[in-house]
Specification:
The chain is 47% helix and 16% strand. The protein is of the alpha/beta class. The protein folds into two domains: 153 residues, P-loop containing nucleotide triphosphate hydrolases (Rossmann fold, 3-Layer(aba) Sandwich); 48 residues, no CATH class. It has a five-stranded parallel beta sheet. A three-stranded antiparallel beta sheet has the order 6-5-7. Helix 2 crosses helix 3 and helix 4 packs parallel to helix 5. The longest helix is centred in the last third of the chain and has 15 residues. Bound molecules: BIS(adenosine)-5'-pentaphosphate (AP5). BIS(adenosine)-5'-pentaphosphate (AP5) binds next to helix 1, helix 2, helix 3, helix 6 and strand 6.
């Protein structure tokens, strides 16, 4: 009995959050998104939120110590045989090494890393068109995945808004930050033999199905 871990790795707009939602609802994986946790902390004005806010607004990475703190706290709350799906974490080599240490302390490892791959122009189009529900967090796209009623969430009727870091200038900075600080993780996990490349330019159901097949027994409840 040990923790199981998969990671969704990919540039901003690759579809990590969208795909994670599809996987979560069809498997035993618990979705852990550091971006969602940070946005919630900013909204609630917690000490973590106050430390993170300015970095997020600029599209830069929040310091590793803050991120590792919230991830470890999340794992401490979980059970010994939980299955985790990390979205947006790790994002630096230090985060990846420290994740290995945290999991090692629980006699676990990173089981698989799914690299969501999509061309840059598509990433930009996805991010500029993204709208998110203020109430329940459900994500839409004005063209690809529109709500039934413009500006309102299909699930709860909440108001849809554009994320503060989804302006074109901040999107370009986030893509640069990914290239400089996160892309190096691809080789790191490839060397460990756990990296699986997935084309995420396709309809989301196809990507979800491929990852569920790739996760195999890890996903079974
Ligand atoms: P985070 O929230 O993780 O943002 P991100 O990595 O920039 O990724 P996104 O959420 O923008 O994109 P996504 O890949 O989830 O795409 P989505 O599914 O929404 O991080 C935000 C910030 O927090 C960071 O900049 C940083 O400051 C901080 N942070 C977070 N984690 C950190 C860490 N570990 N270390 C340091 N700092 C950290 O899809 C995008 C759009 O496309 C949506 O509109 C969606 O509807 C649409 N779409 C998706 N898939 C499809 C599809 N297949 N077909 C059609 N449309 C699609």
């Amino acid at each position: 009995m040990s923790i199981k871990t998969i990671i969704l790795l990919g540039a901003p707009g690759a579809g990590k959050g969208t795909i994670a939602e599809g996987i979560r609802s069809a498997s035993r994986f618990l979705h852990v998104s550091t971006g969602d946790m940070l946005r919630e902390a900013v909204k609630c004005g917690t000490p973590v939120g106050r430390q993170a806010e300015a970095f997020m607004k600029r599209g830069e990475l929040v310091p590793d110590a803050v991120i590792l703190g919230i991830v470890e706290e999340r794992l401490d709350k979980g059970g010994a045989d939980d299955a985790y799906m990390f979205d947006g974490f790790p994002r630096t080599m230090d985060q990846a090494r420290l994740l290995d240490e945290i999991l090692g302390g629980r006699k676990a490892v990173v089981n698989k890393v799914f690299l969501l791959d999509a061309p840059r122009a598509l990433l930009i189009a996805r991010l500029t068109g993204r709208r998110v529900c203020r109430k329940c967090g459900q994500s839409y796209h004005v063209i690809n995945i529109p709500p039934k009623v413009a500006g309102a969430c299909d699930l709860c009727g909440g108001e849809l808004y554009q994320r503060a870091d989804d302006s074109e200038a901040t999107i370009l900075n986030r893509l640069d930050v990914y290239t400089k600080q996160t892309e190096t993780l691809i080789a790191f996990y490839e060397k460990k033999g756990v990296l699986v490349r997935v084309d995420s330019a396709r309809p989301r159901q196809e990507t979800v199905a491929e990852i569920l097949r790739g996760a195999g027994a890890l996903a079974a409840s």
